[in-house]
Write a sequence for this structure.
């Protein structure tokens, strides 16, 4: 195996990992959209769920998010979803 083959392999693995992260984020967004499509969600819950979805979209558009950016995004997403689902 040549060095250039190893570099290409490492690049393709990194690309696959990045695509996997995108798929996971988009799968979460799709599930939340399906939830919004139902009649069970109140307007205030919709607002919080949409805010969480926007944060997920922003994170997916960030080219190389730092660990700090990812943690901040997860915290905001979790906060919005908890607020939405813990409403009485």
């Amino acid at each position: 195996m040549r060095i250039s083959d190893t570099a290409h392999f490492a690049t393709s693995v990194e690309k696959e990992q990045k695509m996997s992260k995108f798929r996971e984020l988009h799968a979460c967004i799709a599930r939340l959209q399906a939830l919004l499509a139902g009649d069970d969600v109140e307007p205030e819950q919709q607002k919080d769920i949409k805010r969480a979805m926007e944060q997920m979209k922003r994170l997916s558009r960030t080219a190389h998010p730092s660990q700090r950016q990812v943690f901040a995004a997860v915290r905001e997403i979790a906060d919005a979803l908890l607020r939405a689902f813990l409403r009485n």
Q: What stands out?
A: Residues 3-37 form the longest helix (35 residues). DSSP finds three helices and no strands in the chain. The chain has a mean pLDDT of 84. The two ends are 61 Å apart (CA to CA).
